[in-house]
Amino acid sequence: SLKTGFLRGVKIRMQSGLHILCSLAVGTVDSVSTFVSTAWRPSQQLGLSPRRGNLASPQEAAGKGRGRAVVWSVLSALCLRHPRRRSRIRRRATGLLSAEQENVMTAKNMAMLPLRIDGRWYDLQHWAEKHPGGAWVMEFARGRDVTAMFHAIHWHSQSRASSILQRLPELHEDAARGAGAEPYVFGGEDAPAMPLLPSSKKSAFMQELHSFLSEEFPTQESMKATPEHWALVCLFSLLTFSCWWLWFQGNMTATLVLPIFHWLLVAVTFHEACHSTLSTNPLANYIFQFTAHPIFENVFIWYTQHLVSHHQYTNEEHFDSDIHVLGTTRMHSETPFCENPRPLLGTYGFPQFVLKLSLATIGSCFLGPRMALEDTPHPPFSYCIQPAPPGKKPELALSMVPSAFVILWPLFAFWSNPLQAAFLSIWPFLGASAVWSVMVFSSHVQEECQPAGTGDLAQSCWWARQAETSLDYSVASPFWTVVTAGLNSQSLHHLAPNICHCHFPRIYPRFAEICAQHGVRLNQRRDILSALEGLLSFAERLNAENAPGLTRP
């Protein structure tokens, strides 16, 4: 009887394990197939076979639903005799079959690619495959208002881009909404006033700036990374991969410097690739986005949060989700204190701000993606302010696996030495959080970068507003330009987001002259330490007990 009980327990555990493996297999197959068929569709120019839509056709979606149901049904029939587990698996199969119609409806919605530009909705589904920047750029922004992105990116070819736009099919507001369009990542129609956006009629300031940039960069290729920049990419890739290999073997010294070397790789690839400034090859830009994984950022929530929200509505309290990613802590002068604080990470105050900075990349690699997967509200809001691009949740789930591996591998491989295992597991994220927070938050979370303090021109000109809500430092230094990913020339980056930062030290002096001639204020600090000091002092005042004009609830 003891032997029989033992064998029965082993059998039950094997069945449970097989159930888990089959679950992972089904999910992984779906994720990989979706990833291969939809994410890597940069353009027909790359010689890839074009496919329309972000998801499969309705017939393909129905077939996929039936296929998954068959897998679960076969699993139930072949390997599970335990009544409770068998009924659970059959419910799973039945649920998949009943969801077939929902999959068909989703596929029909995704057959359109709605984007709003200058107040009009357009269907860019057919144009996406021909887009020089790649189809993925549009798919990641699906259903959003991209007016500012359109004008900021296409200043070099404004007439051609406008001509193409006029030939695209327009959508009625109801049709776009029916396809799941939601113009704003954060805030939107609930905000007390609509955001300031660029118009087709440029101010004298932008006419002169764009004229200068057109002379400096006559072609698209001239805006991208230089050979010297690519040499740095190769060098930092070698250093980063070497550190990761030594980390895998348990080397403590390599782990200590890992966040620094990995950041250097991120600095010359990730940010540039997201803005398509690294290369004219869309596939290269798409791939190099993922250098921020697994310890810095998840690109599937970063794109909508940073490019679609932050770059269009910089430091706008009701539209920029970037200034709310730390939850209940305040990074903007108009942000009220949280009315319903929670213990630990849900409270307010300057110590809470510093704590969240030190855990920033844990949030961007785990908490943010989990909220996006489950559409969980982001405290203290009633909705998710870091949503995944529509149709990209399978890839988002798959992209979290390397981050989980960094946490779990040391605990499994070096369990005999708890201190070593804990250091190898946690330090990469803590070190990455320190570097990331200093580089990223110092560029906008400053007292002089608040929209209320901008000049007269910035109140009506979107371009001037972008410059006056950013902070610059060490702008003449190629070294700090590389180390900070070009964020040390943030105002220039926001006005010309399609130019690689390796060109910034050369063109910044003339850019500053044009700003001065037109009364556009540039916020400048001496170096990164003074920028960090400004960040911390401003955040301390914002989160103090007696913050000006605001009281605790």
State the separation between the terminal residues, measured CA to CA. Answer: 65 Å
What composes the largest sheet? 3 strands, antiparallel
Strands of the biggest beta sheet: in what spatial order? Answer: 1-2-3
Coarse morphology: globular
Q: What's the count of strands? A: 5
Low-confidence stretches: 17-105, 549-553
% residues in beta strands: under 5%
Structural class: mainly alpha
> Helical content, roughly?
55-70%
Number of helices: 26
Radius of gyration: 25 Å
What number is the mean pLDDT? 81
Describe this structure in words.
There is one protein chain. The chain is mainly alpha-helical and 553 residues long. The chain is 58% helix and 3% strand. It contains 26 helices and five strands. The protein has helices spanning 2-39, 58-79, 83-98, 100-109, 125-128, 135-140, 147-153, 158-167, 173-178, 204-216, 220-223, 227-248, 252-274, 282-288, 299-310, 350-358, 360-374, 393-399, 401-413, 418-441, 456-460, 462-468, 478-483, 490-495, 504-517, 528-542; strands spanning 114-117, 120-123, 170-171, 471-473, 523-525. The termini are far apart.
